[in-house]
Amino acid sequence: MEKKLHHSAAYYPELWELDQVDEDIALMKQAGLNAVRIAEFAWSRMEPELGKYEFDWLQLVLDRLHDSGIGAILCTPTPTPPAWLSETYPEILLINKLDRRMTHGSRRHYCYNSPTYRRLCAQIIEQLARRFGRHPAVIGWQTDNEFFCHVEACYCETCKAMFQRWLKEKFGTIENLNHTWGTHIWSEYYNRFEQVPLPVPTATLHNCSLVTAFWQFASQSMVNFQKEQLDVIRAHSDQPVTHNAMPPFHHLDYDDLFADLDFGAIDAYIPVEKWWRAIYEFDWMRRKCSRPFWVMETDTSWTGSVASDNDPTPRGFTRMKGLTAYGMGGQGVSYWLWRQQRTGCEMNWSSVITAWGKPTPGWDDVRTLSSAMPKVEAFLFDAPVPRAEVAIHYSNRSRIMLDVEPMTTDFKFYDTWFDDGYKPLFATGVFRDVLFESALVDGYKIVYTPFLPAIDPALLEKMKRYVEQGGTWIIGPMTGYRTPDHTVHTEAALGALEAFAGVPVVFSFPVNQQPVKVKLAHGATAGAKHWAFSFGDLKDARSLGEYTSHPAAGQCWGYEKTIGKGKLIHTGAGLDESSQTHFLRIILQSAALATLYDSTWGTTVVPRKGNSRQGFVISNWDAKGGRVKLPHPGVDLLTGRSLSGEIRLEPCEVLIVEIK
Q: Is 586:522 a contact under the CB 8 Å cutoff?
């Protein structure tokens, strides 16, 4: 992919008369777009009947785009099988957990494990890639669209048989499965793998190990489905391939999914009131794939399907989030969508232009972002985002386990990881990376691991070496108390993690309606949250606080211990937000970090550093304006202003500052 910033929108020419293409392209040029994403829902236009392929319309569109200097991310059309396919091969239709077969319509109504569906997908992708794999307009590919969005798993007989085979490959013998899962509980003992059920509704709850294993199988099945697509694309095209991740919805393991991809992509729909969640998504994308990431979908002003989900965003917000996406390591920003849908169930979603070809409320922000890009493009490529000094773990496997077994009635993993894990760290002002479990940790001064119920042996060994060689590992709340097979440790509350730490757990207990208080070592009192562990027999460890209320009054809440050249900091429960932020800030300040920035909440600072150029990207997200103390004087490349010391930002203002 060409080394440039891409500014894009999702384009659906299959829904319109082809004589409108020239008008669309002319308006795209006015808006400053230099790319589109195309064809993810166009199977019925590409193959109106089985084996009858019609690509001339797409050829015309791609030719016109190329002639106008606009590139295309070409998508595989597999999220939406056409009606003839659903009618001819009803076995490809997904069956939900209530044993109801999906009817044709909407999207993602297919079983991704169906051999028939996989064969037909391979055929249409083969035709598409043969025809356009070397087309000069194609700058990249996208597989399918938002895997696991809307529906996550199929419960058909094909999936059941594949799940049972998957379990056999995993455990080898049924005796190993029975022993690992403890299946004599409730007489769930299995004589053969063919007896293992899918987790469909039953009288009460299924075995947690069964449900967790099923979701891991479903995730791996989708990874395999994508792998088949990648093999076909790469046989005919050298352009990089991605998938547009949609993490709020589901249990897909992006660690596995992205391992096969050339660059990461995220669909980031960002409400102003939850703006920090977008920052996590950019932190998350930046470290996974070999190339800079794309924001493959974002709204121009509001979202919605048959009803809108939010009010129009403030003036300047769309420009700001685009510039910040580039500033945080992105190479592409793409809107959903270019022209307002005139039919279907998403007609009220914001777009760049209306169905009748006129500007929308987001038009001005799109244009001003386009005009800003040439001013900063060279700097952003010359001064990439450096590796952070601090990292936080995120785990889709943990999401599966804590959705299966949330531990307390108010716990929701996705919200809690954001609000009680990531947000307090973010609020300290430190620049940070978000890591998958498989990521390397060498070079980070601090790694924070909250809400990771199962630490597999490979991760634990990696973190042991990290600490022994000089790193600081903060083990956050609700971490290490289950095995990877979703069972309870029997040798100690935290298993091998506890053996490494050398500090035993005394009690493990829920925090629901009854308040549990903690007196911290620095003198403050805080409220514990969700699920708590208390520690005893500290020996050579230093206490960081103790519980002051039942059932662990007087027992240790957290401790710090030197191991080798490094340090282990272990907290037994999360704290209320302000206390957790203050606790983390004390640790970070003691580490003498270079990227601990002084800014008001709602204003972010991202470092950029290359061989000859360096600076910062500073953005106001909460649309209230903010303040930041600039670490070094510099020049704002967007306006030419010289800046130093404490500066104020207007609502949704962005500064891209080069240190001079």
A: yes
The whole-angstrom separation of Cα 212 and Cα 215 is 5
Q: Could you give the C-alpha distances from 474 to 145, 374, 444, 572, in angstroms and in order?
A: 36, 41, 12, 11
Query: What's the confidence (pLDDT) of residue 193?
Result: 98
Residue 291 has a pLDDT of: 87
Residues ≥6 apart with Cβ < 8 Å to 81: 43, 92, 104, 109, 110, 117, 120
Provide, rounded to the nearest whole percent, the portion of the chain with pLDDT above 90: 92
Backbone φ, ψ for residue 539 (5° rounding):
50, -110
Nearest residue to 445 via CA among 426, 430, 424, 461: 430
What does the alpha-carbon distance between residue 48 and residue 39 come to, in Å, rounded to a whole number? 14
Helices 363-382 and 317-327, packing angle to 10 deg = 20
Which parts of 100-171 fold into alpha helices (H)?
A: 115-132, 157-171
Name the one residue in this structure whose structure tokens are 């299924």.
206
Helices within 9-114 (DSSP H only): 21-31, 43-46, 56-67, 83-88
Concatenating the DSSP letter of every residue in 451-518 gives: S-SB--HHHHHHHHHHHHTT-EEEE-SS-S-B-TTS-B-SSSTTHHHHHHHT--EEEEEEESSS--EE
Backbone angles phi, psi at 26, to 5 degrees: -60, -40
Whole-angstrom distance, CA of residue 426 vs CA of residue 478: 19
Helices 56-67 and 21-31: crossing angle in degrees, nearest 10, is 30
Query: How many residues comprise the chain?
Result: 660
Strand segments, DSSP code E, in 305-462 are 330-335, 390-393, 432-435, 446-449
Q: Tell me what the pLDDT averaged over the chain comes to.
A: 96
Query: Residue 116: is it exposed, middle or buried by C-beta count within 10 angstroms (0-12/13-18/19+)?
Result: middle
Tokens of 160: 């059941």
Q: SS3 helix, strand, coil % of the chain, rounded to 5?
A: 35, 25, 45
Output the pLDDT for position 20. 96
CA pair distance 446, 390, nearest whole angstrom: 5
Among candidate residues 361, 331, 326, 356, the one with its CA nearest the CA of residue 341: 356
Written as one string, the DSSP assignment of 2-26 is: -SS-EEEEEE-GGGS-GGGHHHHHH
CA distance 171 to 297: 40
Q: Which of 47, 146, 389, 653 is catalytic?
A: 146
Active site residue 346: no
In this predicted structure, what is the pLDDT of residue 248?
66
Q: How far apart are CA 441 and CA 436, in angstroms?
A: 10
pLDDT at position 216 is 97
pLDDT confidence of residue 1: 85
How crowded is residue 187: how many other Cβ atoms within 10 Å of its Cβ? 6
Q: Model-level pTM greater than 0.85?
A: yes
**Alpha-carbon distance values, 265 to 220, 318, 545 (Å):** 19, 18, 41
Catalytic site includes residue 273: no
Q: Is the dihedral of CA 25, 80, 333, 302 positive or negative?
A: positive
Please give the C-alpha separations between residue 466 and each of 411, 454, 497, 581, in angstroms, as whole numbers: 30, 18, 14, 24
Q: Which of 24-28, 151-155, 378-382, 442-446 has the weakest average pLDDT?
A: 151-155
Q: Cβ of 429: how many Cβ atoms within 10 Å?
A: 22
CA distance 565 to 588: 18
Planar angle of CA 60, 1, 440, nearest 5 degrees: 140
Question: Given 14, 281, 297, 498, which residue is catalytic?
Answer: 297
